[in-house]
Amino acid sequence: MFQYLIRRLLIAIPSLLGISVILFTVLALAPGDPFEELATNPAIPPEVRANLRASLGMDDPIHLRYVAWLTSMLRGEWGFSFVSRIPVDQLILQRLPTTIIVIGASQVLALAIAMPVGVYAATRPYSLFDKVANTLAFVGFSLPTFFTGLLLIMLFSIQLGWLPFVFRTDIEATGWRWWWEMFRQSIMPIMVLGLFQGAAWTRFVRSAVLDVIRLDHVTTARSKGLPESVITLKHVVRNAMIPVVTLVALQMPVVFGGAIVTEQIFRVPGIGSLLISAILANDTPVIMAVTFVFATLVIFFNLLADILYGWLDPRISYR
Amino acid sequence: MTENDLRRLLARVKEGTLSRRGFVKRMAAVGFTAPMATQLLAITGAAPAAAQSVPEYKPTRRGGGGALKILYWQAATLLNPHFAVGTTNQEASRVFYEPLAGWAADGTLYPILAAEIPSVENRGLAEDGRSVTWKLKRGVKWHDGQDFSADDVVFNWEYARNPAVAGVSIGSYRDVNVVKVDDYTVRVEFQKPTPFWADAFVASRGLIIPKHLFKDYAGSNARDAPTNLRPVGTGAYRYVSFAPGDMLRAELNPNYHRENRPYFDTLEIKGGGDAVSAARAVLQTGDFDYAWNLAVEDEILKRLEAAGRGKVNIVEGGGIEFIQLNATDPNQEVDGERASIRTEHPAFRDPAVRQAMSYLVDRNALEQFIYGRGGPATANFLNNPPRFRSTNMRWEFSIQKANEVLDAAGWARGRDGIRAKNGTRLKFVFQTSVNAPRQRTQAIVKQAAQRAGIDIELKSVTASVFFSADVANPDTYTKFFADMQMYTTTMPQADPQLFMNQYVSWEISSKANNWQGRNIVRWRNEEYDRVYREAEGELDPVKRAALFIRMNDLIVGSNHVIPLVKRPTVSGSLNNLRHILSGWDNTHWLLSDWYRET
């Protein structure tokens, strides 16, 4: 087990290096530069822009830039944003709490919907409940988030005027009022993301449980006369969870990465909106940092999922 | 009316034998608009000292106005004006920092940290145009209580012109010399007579940062200055908190140097999102007081306005959407350079073809069906300030006339209906950036051209490529490797000198200057060059205005440039908000004077 862990971690190093090389090259090859706005402003002579580029080392050959980036990254320096000229780690840390709260809550909501509904629907296949749940799930993941987001804004903010649609990080209130305001402004983005994800996961949980429920050991458990609830929880759900765990674990990095579209619609200052504005402004250090952290998290959660398998299914061993 | 008549009339106004109203009337009789006539009075010193360029400020005490909430759909990322690459960052810095003077909506200067606007009369402007002396306002304090003085102004010059600082304002400061005369007087000296003296220390490029907080960061360590993100300025509002790319908060500055200002107790500027929902948040739900740059279809804005809570503000500046007809041949290579200046465009070298192209653009339709209030049709390239606007140019949409012109010039229709002459077919590539209104405009032009026997192939390039300065990419607008192209160019100052250098021959964009020259259409005209040189050194404002009008007539008259619509700035605000906007300066240029009518 320990050896397995070490081996997996060692394999992660070349994959991360490979990822960083690819990201860096793609970004360097992409057109545009962070001082584009200066280019169209007649009051700024072109030399000024050239000087700025040179001072930020943007004219060096790509391999030199990559090595410089890598060495400073290894020393724990993430570089600074071309656009706001402040360290990238500060920018990311500033946005992490909001991202984790909003995206994290939506993932929890999605799980809270998907698990019970999926399992219940699978234990009673083709019942009325199953049909309704299926239909809603199809509707849920067929509607893109930008559409449901706008729909909710139209209904709750504009027609009814109940909820604000501009997310604010610093609410001027304390105590329960702060919590209430926070709840009011977060509920729409959380709903949009959570229902979308929940709908997809419901389908997945249902089919995973259906696969297990027909197996012989479940029939055996039934013939032993075990109560239905014990059968479902102990013999069905636990076995059905293996694929679900992979799916959920792979989804976890998204909690860090944020949701670009939803954040943009509700003006949630999360990492997704940081990434998209950095991409639009060609702010390479920020794009690199966010995507690289994202890649690291994907690899880490993959490993975590593999380890969880062992706990869920003792037949799996690590060598 | 000749220049001499004009001068005689102006002299009579100054002497008092002709009333100002009488002057405006006479001017109207010969076709000058009223704003233009008043401007003439103002720039020649015949206007009353307190020019009515800024509306009256009504509140009678400081504060008590509650919160002012502003929404930007692009978010500010830093608060040092010398590093402010885009408009949003300039706007955010402008909340805290102030220049010596700002540009009012009518293109005149308005003093902010200066005690008065320099002029020849008050001895601020040197007669030879080689220096300008600014008298600073006394008793101005930085937000931390320190006094503002000439040292701060001089420091800003040293800071901005230092290449190690790598600021974006360097262009305004590196060629001037700044001298401290006394604690409240500075002199800006120029290398040659400079009619346009109001660049350094003025408006968005002139925001003054405090010496005592930046002096240790005036070199390559400029990026590390803590004040870059926690500004200490002289403005009406002082810093509370800032989250880059998200939210900026400020509060009333109790020691502000202008009395009874500001009106609002707190200020917040929220960034991010998109333009349509920003318009909604102001016009429809009233959650915010003001929304910046509503790049939204006019039809949607009108629908939102119908809610009755807010209104759309249209502020004229110099921005213009226009078509360029390449003067060089993009399909021929000379020494490995396409569209080389040594070639001539095979079709556009014939004035008749250019004339026909101009007839084929239906500007009325563009205004009516595409741009709405955000794009009034125009015949001029140089539209504002009004004193520089030509009255000689006309535009007309007529497919019939286009056909006649082409027939007369010998461009005969071939079997496929496309005109040709001496083996040159009227088949053009028309490029622009990916953008809904631009692509609709392309389609309208193509349709009309088809009916005149001209075949246009449409091409649209992603904005991030089209507007980039990427030397390796052939699709950038500065390379212009197409027959026609269309985009918007903006005029950042109320003076057209920098704006009109887009057509001088020494600015031609070519391989030699890495396609960084400003003359993208690659048009050459000796008269234009001469007139431009003359205007650069002309100190008489009336003569100078006439020179710029001549330049406009030359380039527009050549039809190498076809002006389409003006692009004023469009913003939204609540009905009860009284703001002061200007097309020549930042939105927040006079934020101190904003108030709410109750």
TrEMBL record, chain A:
Gene3D superfamilies: MetI-like. One of its GO terms (cellular component) is plasma membrane. Its main location: membrane. It comes from Neoroseomonas eburnea. Residues 96-305 form the ABC transmembrane type-1 domain. It comes from the Bacteria. It is found in: Cell membrane. The keyword Cell membrane applies. Belongs to the binding-protein-dependent transport system permease family. This is ABC transporter permease. It is a multi-pass membrane protein. The chain crosses the membrane at residues 9-30, 100-123, 135-162, 182-201, 244-266, 286-312. One of its GO terms (biological process) is transmembrane transport. It holds the Pfam family BPD_transp_1. InterPro entries: BPD_transp_1_N, MetI-like, MetI-like_sf. The keyword Iron-sulfur does not apply. Keywords: Cell membrane, Membrane, Transmembrane, Transmembrane helix, Transport.
TrEMBL record, chain B:
GO terms for biological process: peptide transport. GO terms for molecular function: peptide transmembrane transporter activity. Keywords: Signal, Transport. Its main location: periplasm. It comes from the Bacteria. Residues 125-505 form the Solute-binding protein family domain. It is found in: Periplasm. Gene3D superfamilies: Dipeptide-binding Protein, Domain 3, Periplasmic binding protein-like II. One of its GO terms (cellular component) is ATP-binding cassette (ABC) transporter complex. Belongs to the bacterial solute-binding protein 5 family. This is Peptide ABC transporter substrate-binding protein. It comes from Neoroseomonas eburnea. The lineage of its organism: Bacteria, Pseudomonadati, Pseudomonadota, Alphaproteobacteria, Acetobacterales.
